[in-house]
Amino acid sequence: MSTPESPKETTGTGKVGVYVCYCGGNISDQVEVEKVCESLRQLPEVGVARSNMFMCSDPGQELIIEDIKSGKVDRVVIASCSPRLHETTFRSAISRAGGNPYLYEHANVREQVSWVHHGSEATAKANRLVAAAVAKAALSEPLQPIRVDVQQRAAVLGGGVAGMKAALELADRGLEVILIERSPFLGGQVARLRHLAPFGEDAAAVIAELAGRVQEHPAITVQTCAQVEGFDGYIGQFRLQVRRRPPEAEEYADQLAAGSAAGAQLGDVVPFVGIMPQRLPENLEEQEITVGAIILATGMRPYQPLRGEYGYGDLPQVLTLPEFTRLWHAARSQRQGDLLVVQGRRIRHLAIIHCVGSRHIPGVHDEGGRGYLNEYCSRTCCTASLYTANLIRQTYPNTRVYEFYRDMRAFGRGQEELYAQASDSQVMFFRFRAGEEPQISPTSEHPTAPVLIRVKDVLTFNEELEVMADLVVLAVGQEANPVPGLVELMKLPVGADRFLLEVHPKLRPVEVAVAGIYLAGTCQAPFDVGETCSAAAAAAVKAAAVLTRGYVELDPFVAEVDLSRCQGTGACVEACLADGALTMVDMTVDGQNVRRAQVNPALCLGCGACVAVCPHNAINVKGWTLKQYEAMVDAIVAEDLAA
Amino acid sequence: MSSRVNPQIRDELTAFGFKDGDKCYSCSTCTVTCPLATPENPFPRKIVRYLQLGLQDKLRQSPEPWLCYYCGDCSTQCPRGADPGETMMAARRYLTALYDWTGFAKKFYMSEKFELMAVGYVALLVGLIMLMFNTGQPDWQHADVNSLWPARYVELADLAMAAVLSFLLLSNVWRAYRAVLGELRGKIPMRLYLGQLKELLVNFLTQKKFAGCSDRMPWIIHLLIMTGYTTVFILVVVLLNGLTFDNLRFQRGWPEYPLLHPIRLLGYYATVAILLGTSYALWGRWKRTKPAYQHSHPTDWMFLILLQLTTLTGIFIHFGRLLDWPLFTYALYVIHMMVAVPMLLLEVPFAKWAHLAYRPLILYLLKVKEVYQAQNTAS
């Protein structure tokens, strides 16, 4: 199909401008675009109907702008691809021409027509969809975006690396931050590590630096032993009920004891525990804070193997990687010779098993007592295992290391090198298939090695191999730290993997569906420390963009009460899906004190549930009124357009 | 039946030249690259893996190391620098030690010092014997080796040495045969073994498999050394006394055969072939001209040096005889024997030279196995 030359125009009586896109053939190969323009010109509402090879291109947008400026058009209908692609493009074109961007309708004649229909049927359907858009546009009112003032203060939930990093990023931009941490300690999971793979930074030094800066920063208020118990409001104006309480008897007892045993003062690093920035609260304290944005940095927890999983819990020689890290730390401090000695036992052969608690396959793996499977890859365990293996080989050359993996995923900077280095230092690798995990059993066969590992090794032509070991380390994956309370309070979306879910993994990676709430770090997905800090910085910048502007603009497609019709039945309030978006309030209407429905536009989702239940047609969603729907339906079923 | 991973063996393998094999992450690029690997006998990755894990029994049963002629393509292609070609070489050394029941081979490979001492002792012994046992009546008029060490006595010594050599080599060959065929050994009927004997001969004489490598130069060099060596072996061991035929007797008396005498011509061919081949290999190993020459185990040097020294002293004896310098000739003959005898006695059954038996044997056995299995599937 050729490019239309010198598009004709027919001026109707109305001022709706219709612009149909060829989409370079994507649409015009199936839809006779010129015919669509021709039949729409017959409609009384239509002022002009034009086509272009690419409406989203500059020349395409210029068509619209000229028509608006010349006064031929005061509302616009675009027939092109999905509005998800170019709605904002066309709205801003209208704004640039001096028009109201909400006097705009969109007919999707690509995904809904040309990609799924052929020939005359396609043209007929396009006709009707565009006619419906015209009918709706003719009834559109000019709207203004909703403007909400913003409290220039943020709450960060979680005092791990992500939370501290996000708090610092915000505070460095001059914003006030309240950092809320459930435990008495800052540092989170990173505090429980020794070295950070792949480059081997000292974990304690990393958290000490972050926590030091957090404590010193005048704009950051830290609240440990604190939890969010109540939540309402909307972007710019969130209200949080924060409760601080002293830990109960057993809670954090070990960690607190470790701190006292080490004689740690406030602000000191307690190995494998974290940093206590302030005293424990003596009594229950409650307070309400208002913030403009919230950053969730609730983190992850290492997978805890089930009893008997790879012999865990049954055999004292089977440990998780975090558990081993603590023993390693102790062994290092009293190093003797070239052989690793753990709890008095000489470790000649050490095995590491990958993918423990990750990459479960339904039908292959058993839920056990957990009630769920972790189908995702935890992404960090391969590298952590390789790092650990290298560390052992370097420090204790007489301790041999064996790694059992399903797939080696040493992606990213500095990680492939760890893999090569491990091979080079004679770490032996074995590869098992899902469902054929290595079998761990105790044995008395060998004088020193108490554990026998059997594996069907893919690398050795699936032959069954036996490896003797003194210690088995399980490279456990990451699980989302459960925060059911926050999920319930804030209506947070949670993915099938039980991590908090972003809006779009690529285009909006740190935002959740609730505006003003952002994700930082491993509450979202398994990350390493570097990725966590990147995510935290991104979330902070996203929040800062809102907070520093002082206000936010929201789409005006929210419910509106027609007080001339409202009888105060309250049906809409009951049907409302967004807490607080609709309330019954006392007011004076025509000199009478009555109780009527009132909309909080910042909270309204524009879903229309209220519209459907109102017995008096007294509530409508702006931009999507019942009248507009009726006009669209009429246009779709109209007979004269059936061509 | 599961195999036990044995890291101790892995340590021992270093002495056999297993160095970069640990770097292998089993991508199999080497196996895909190799023009000689087959689905039934894939290598080098399989062998690299067995060595990495110290799977000694698996390795003992593997024919693959003998199917490789070390063209080095795999090492060039390896993405991790694991040098699979050299790892195959290490596997051949290790197999030579595994087949050898005396334990000598293992000592040879694991200790350079032991190898030097063994060669030195045998050389001294040979020298002493030659000084002690001779006619005592050298011909000072003409250079005639027979006047001091008559051919018929030397032949007796040759035969004795050949018997010892054969016993050692064949007993190891027997062990290789048992290991490679495993349980099939008893099942294959004798007529199949006999029917395929020509395969043994063809592989020994032509090394036709070697020609399958992408670089043909090593094959030619190998063929030169092999034919030269075989020719001269027949001349000096089998035909030393001419099997009682005067005209077949190896030239060591006086006067020399005429220039175009077949024995003399054969001698020249052998000498030139060996000198060319060993010089090329020595130069290559010295300069590391190709992947196969990147890593040289002490036994590789010993093999080439002994062979070249034997040939050079042989040439000088020939010159001595042509010039008719008796003393020069007799002295060099002693030195020649001091080099040649340790080479034959030690290198052939216990070191690099053993491959002259193992390689054709394994190829032959694989052929026998293939025919047997084809017949079995057919019936």
- Percent strand of chain B equals under 5%
Sheet bearing the most strands of chain A, described? 5 strands, parallel
> Quick check: average pLDDT of chain B?
91
Helical element count of chain A?
A: 16
Radius of gyration of chain A: 32 Å
- What form of chain B results from the Cα inertia axes? globular
Major sheet summary line of chain B: none
Greatest contact between two chains: A-B, 23 and 19 residues
Oligomeric composition of the shown chains: heterodimer
Structural class of chain B: mainly alpha
Number of strands of chain A: 34
Q: Please tell me the total number of domains of chain B.
A: 2
Strand order of the largest sheet of chain A: 10-7-6-16-29
Q: How many domains comprise the coordinates of chain A?
A: 4
| N- and C-termini, Cα separation of chain A | 20 Å
**What's the average pLDDT of chain A?**
93
Structure description:
The complex is a heterodimer of chains A (643) and B (379). With 643 residues, chain A is of the alpha/beta class. Chain A has four domains: 128 residues, 3-Layer(aba) Sandwich (Rossmann fold); 219 residues, 3-Layer(bba) Sandwich (FAD/NAD(P)-binding domain); 169 residues, FAD/NAD(P)-binding domain (3-Layer(bba) Sandwich), CATH 3.50.50; 63 residues, Alpha-Beta Plaits. Helices cover 28% and strands 26% of the residues of chain A. Chain A contains 16 helices and 34 strands. Chain A has a five-stranded parallel β-sheet with strand order 10-7-6-16-29. A five-stranded parallel β-sheet of chain A has the order 18-27-21-22-23. In chain A, strands 2-1-3-4 form a four-stranded parallel β-sheet, sandwiched between helices. The longest helix of chain A is centred in the C-terminal third of the chain and has 21 residues. Chain B is an all-alpha fold. Chain B folds into two domains: 93 residues, Fumarate Reductase Iron-sulfur Protein, Chain B, domain 2 (Orthogonal Bundle), CATH 1.10.1060; 275 residues, no CATH class. In chain B, helix 3 packs across helix 7, helix 8 crosses helix 9 and helix 14 crosses helix 19. The longest helix of chain B has 31 residues. The mean pLDDT of chain B is 91. Classes of the chains: A alpha/beta (643), B mainly alpha (379). At the A-B interface, helix 11, strand 23 and strand 26 of A face strand 1 and helix 3 of B. Strand 26 of chain A pairs parallel with strand 1 of chain B.
